[in-house]
Design brief:
Two copies of one chain form a homodimer. Chain A has 333 residues and is α/β, with parallel strands linked by helices. Chain A has helices spanning 3-10, 14-22, 29-41, 48-55, 71-86, 100-112, 134-142, 164-177, 192-207, 224-237, 248-260, 278-282, 294-309; strands spanning 60-65, 90-95, 117-121, 145-148, 157-162, 183-187, 217-219, 242-245, 270-272, 289-291, 317-320, 323-325. Helix content of chain A is 46%, strand content 16%. In chain A, helix 7 (134-142) links the parallel strand 3 and strand 4. The interface between A and B is large, with 46 and 45 residues. Chain A binds a DNA duplex (16 and 16 nucleotides) through residues 2-4, 12-16, 18-19, 21-22, 24-28, 31, 46-56.
Amino acid sequence: MNIYDISKQSGVSIATVSRVINNSGYVAEKTRKKVMDVIEANSYMPNVFAKGMSTSSMKTIGILTTNIRDLYQAQCVYYLEQELKKYGYTAMLCCTGDELAAKKEHVELLASRKVDALIFIGSHFVEKNAKDNAYLYGASNNVPVFLLNGLLRHDNIYSILCDDETGAYELTRICLEKGAKDPVFIASRDTFSMRRKFQGFLKACRQYGIEKDDSAFRVFSEDPESLDASYTLLFDESAYDALICADDEIAAVAQRAARNHGIRVPEDLMVTGYNDSVIATIASPAITSLDNRAQYMCTQAVYGLTQVLDGKEFPEETMYSGKVVERESTKRT
Amino acid sequence: MNIYDISKQSGVSIATVSRVINNSGYVAEKTRKKVMDVIEANSYMPNVFAKGMSTSSMKTIGILTTNIRDLYQAQCVYYLEQELKKYGYTAMLCCTGDELAAKKEHVELLASRKVDALIFIGSHFVEKNAKDNAYLYGASNNVPVFLLNGLLRHDNIYSILCDDETGAYELTRICLEKGAKDPVFIASRDTFSMRRKFQGFLKACRQYGIEKDDSAFRVFSEDPESLDASYTLLFDESAYDALICADDEIAAVAQRAARNHGIRVPEDLMVTGYNDSVIATIASPAITSLDNRAQYMCTQAVYGLTQVLDGKEFPEETMYSGKVVERESTKRT
DNA sequence: CTGAAAGCGCTTACAG
DNA sequence: CTGAAAGCGCTTACAG
């Protein structure tokens, strides 16, 4: 069943059938109804490939994530897909991992699939070495690029991100206000976004007259074996009384490591996470975290995308504030 | 840049260019090289739409998940995407939610996008009411359907699943062997797959001479507010000494509820999860769980899919065994 | 308001 | 081993 069949059965030309399908141009109400009836009777669906061939679009958006198993990234994919379908778009998903080469390959793959736009989830795509971001600029030459939780200034690249510096600042401030004197910052990777959080951490420390430098930025791998050793070293090194963690998972693991070392949370040690995921809720004690409003971010991205694809304006940069969610891990009375 | 440009620049017909691109038919080595050089010099990529139009395929697979935010489902998506790209396929992702109507819509959406096959993640797609599975049968008329953790007998539907009955049986047996006398089974939904786990639970109980009936099957909603009340009721009702939970998340929450009621895990109450996710590892005490080998399942599914799309044989049903991972939540000495 | 016709960029029998 | 040509199923100026 194709447009010719519909044309024959309804006694009009294929041009007219096309017009009623796409609601384009003028079609007499009578004609439209006649055609619609035939279409419905046959539950006809236009062939996407043919349509794509003439319009150069299949209404498909490429979503790139370094790791969909990460709760935060999965959440973003969820919200993005949710929004995209409202506008008739379909999501093509790529999990790239952290290797630059793989990221490039996936961008090319999606380009070859002729997606209408690209959405990158997470700061993991913005490389520390500025030159390594060329692949993003390259991508933006073909299609609009949306960067979630990342910031890059370039034509056709749109960045939408939570103000993580302020977020981390507030989490740190809460601990300091409750009496912590010696906080430390823990991340699993050294990225642009982590550095921004660390800036917030430093700012709060400065404000409370606590001297901290780059040595307070710790990168602990996610490998479970080396992790134990890392924490042993950390706790031996100094009696830290607050762990500002770059995400909830790190916080949960850190909290457990502390307990294994006989350190009580929050009595001896306060712990904060980031992203406000289920892990923060489920952990015990439940972990104070920062809700960075992933849903808002994703909704904005998809809205922006429809605007840009419509040839309308959209700000190149959107930064919005997150929200602290206090829980037991920082409750000290 | 299209196939005509390549044809002109290399001085051969478009038919020959097409043959070298697709490695089809006979092409003289000399000709092939000449054409390849031109293709690479221009970094030419065939237009997918045109290709799709003539071959009726874009090498795209539809993946359906009810909820990508669920750790287990996210994990499956990860492994599936990983495998699919090895074979040159791209993943189109749909998050359907639990409503039957939405599931149907998404199946149609993917059909309209002309995907080559459909992969359904999780038993959430196999409805309890047999009639409601018609949409799956319908889908299988157009493309091969792969059902992960679900079982449905129908032409062009391939089921791949872990033996959850035995899995739940073994988890229950561990608790009983360690002295539990009064276990109860907790799920968040009443699905086909949950029922299979429950059968395993009952089997273990019978074997240990413990009488249990349908009243031992509890469905607790995921809504945090009603949840607290549910657990209060549960713990008031009887001094259960083992909670066999249908997944790790439920187990983690149950464990916390127990602690809030002054019940110690594992001393007073043993707890088991399912899926062996990070949550089981991170929880404290760490939770005994069942590794249902999601990666194996996904690898099999993608392999099966390539076989079927190649016109080869693949078993309609594959059931494999899971693996118990014992942790602190059942450690009683 | 409607239709004839060109064009989108491939693949694939078929002929040679 | 290679090429001419039909065909895939749409959209969209253009003419009327």
